[in-house]
Amino acid sequence: MKNYRLALIGFGNVNQGLAEILRDQKDFLAEAYGVSFTIVGVSALSKGSIYQPDGFRASELLEAVQRDGNLERVAAAQRGWDALALITNSNAEIVVEASYTDLQTGQPAISHVRRALESGKHVVTANKGPVALCYAELAELARQNSRLFGVEGTVMSGTPAILLGREVLKSARLRKVEGILNGTTNYILTNMELGVSYEDALAEAQKQGYAEADPTGDVEGFDAAGKAVILSQLLFDRAIGMVEVERTGISRLTLEDIQQAKQAGERWKLIASLEEKDGKLRARVSPIRLPLSHPLAGVSGATNAITYETQALGRVTLIGPGAGRQQTGFAMLTDLLSIHNAQSMR
Amino acid sequence: MKNYRLALIGFGNVNQGLAEILRDQKDFLAEAYGVSFTIVGVSALSKGSIYQPDGFRASELLEAVQRDGNLERVAAAQRGWDALALITNSNAEIVVEASYTDLQTGQPAISHVRRALESGKHVVTANKGPVALCYAELAELARQNSRLFGVEGTVMSGTPAILLGREVLKSARLRKVEGILNGTTNYILTNMELGVSYEDALAEAQKQGYAEADPTGDVEGFDAAGKAVILSQLLFDRAIGMVEVERTGISRLTLEDIQQAKQAGERWKLIASLEEKDGKLRARVSPIRLPLSHPLAGVSGATNAITYETQALGRVTLIGPGAGRQQTGFAMLTDLLSIHNAQSMR
After folding, report:
1. pTM across the whole model
2. Interface confidence (ipTM) of the complex
3. Is B211 strand, coil or helix?
4. How far is B132 from chain A (nearest CA, A)?
């Protein structure tokens, strides 16, 4: 049985989701993979920072947050370390980075990832910032330190879109990808097709917790563009910036547009696409009218999906959740198991 | 650069598809995976049997079949070996089994697989017979001989349904799978929705080469049931027989049934399903009326699809081709690369 020590940066939905999985699937992970994971430290801005070299039980961390809203009453050998101190000084072998996402600067996550790799620790993250803004540098740093940098959770949460496109379908020769990569806008468009106005659909998305108070990031396509930048890097090995993504949001789509498409047997979807042509990669986010026969046309609500166009197989489509606490926690688990796999083979 | 020697059993669509990929993707495979594959022998009932210890060029085999319809004019060190002789006597490290499928007896494919594993050769196959009828025995034989038995092509051709369900989503805890696993019947149902009668839709499927002259295997659900048996074994570790699959075909569906569903906002699909409940596995093939919101409802024509219901992620759906020469050839390549992967780690 191999055990790995984890340091969690941030303890919001993603890392609580991971902690729940580690609590509930302990026996399964031991039996099926011969592996266990021990959380030795947590550093979270609003919930406090604790470290215990021989580890916490996942359940006690979850119960504390449930009960107190923070980690202050959890017994620990060390308290108050900030993220960089925990990353540097702890005995963790893997850092699970889940601080907040900033697509402009990528901070503070970039510093966390850099420090972790430099201290010889593997990193797994669902944070789009570091991956969209400086994946190449961080991947090279990981390589130099013989460590892994897992990023499955940055696109479509735990739905294994990156693993499928990057590893499984690599030999099929990827030509193009098209995806519904933002659940909020797809939820809004699905509701508009039922006759709800853009404003009401957006308000409902906010009420359901899909959209933020300032919905710009979703409805103007920035979130989807960030994911296009990530996929450009991971699936096509091309480093592009956010500004290189042609971007149009859904805020100007009217109920009339939606109904016109419906009458023509088509459906508006906010599509992020990447296509290689004549040695160039075109990256684009924009609302597109898809015929109902297109595999992405039937994807409704907050669900995400991606269609890989390959030379060997033609179109292969993967549909699944694009967000959610346990779902993103599961993406972290996928990366943790990949690290375990790679270590077992050394 | 690692090279593997292949013996091909059968040289119909599947193995010709593989030969085309090996011819066209030689440089890519060398560069991306550091691997090459050499065909040292082919044994095919109608096209002849040839063996050359240092290998043939894939292109010369394809050109011969194109030109002569057989392999008789290809220069070879040895001719006329039957499949078992080629498997036993050749210097191949991997046997690519693509003889015809017999879901009743599994023969002659079962004998080929057995002999190959007993002679210390890896096996990859797209043949449903051996996998549906005696996977457990053959997998154990492979284990005893430290060889791999790759079966990706038996369900959904090169669309990586088995790899996704068995490896990638294993940690998400599979509860249920539902699939459109027979392209012929889905093609017929799609056409019936356009108003074509069952008889005419079947005739068109035969004309397009989807359905055989005797369509029983497809339309009565035997083909889909065979795939359910395979998935039962591969995804749920349960050996069940064909008779344990509750099976209803589509031949009794009328245009009226189809139209009634349409009016109710639903769609008939021939669904193969496997579900674990109270420790039991229920296997079923039958036409089901799906709401249009179901991820399988939008899958049209000869395309295949599978929905995995998991504890961690909820529903994840994979859509892709279910048949085709290059597509099934690609499934063989997927398994060949898995063997290469596993060998590289030893």
Report:
1. 0.96
2. 0.95
3. coil
4. 24
